[in-house]
Design a protein that fits this description.
The protein is mostly helical and 190 residues long. It is built from nine helices and no strands. Helix 1 packs across helix 4 and helix 7 crosses helix 8. GO terms for molecular function: DNA-binding transcription factor activity; transcription cis-regulatory region binding.
Length: 190
Amino acid sequence: MAKRSDRTAEIIKATVQLLKEEGSEGLTLRKVAGRCGIALSNLQYYYPGKTALLQATADHFFRTCEEQILAERAEALNDDPASSHAFLKRLLTLLLICELDEFYSTVFRELWALAIRDAALAAAMHTYYRRYAAWMTDMIAELFPRADAIVSLLIPYAEGYALVGDSMPLDRQEVVSLWYRLITALPDKP
């Protein structure tokens, strides 16, 4: 019998694949269970309903992003503990030239589409963004005095840019450079 964490990872992976292939309209617990080769009741043991499954999928993605950001931070500051600017460049690159772009764009477009009609999922998404913004503000505040301003501008921009960035006149690396210049030019006080 698979460990709980292995089973939940398999379920989340199947959920993401179905979201990518069929969109939110095609996602059902029955299809996810079928992809995993388990009974619907077995899936419902882990996730009693579609909203719980989608919340877990979002949580998984957010944890993955946080882990990547922390790894980039550790690497940048390990190379030069005083190099907040090296971390900023890595953070911007991760958020704006994200390796998870396809996953990110697909999953979150579908989650927000579902959240329009699912108040519990919408509340979970808003709760996540508040937590994510607070976490990122705390992490950046150790390095930049205007962390609240940086986060307030950067998170919504990165969210939208993941969807439309390839359609913009500047390439992604140019946008990273632009954001770096904007952030480093912020005054220390409002």
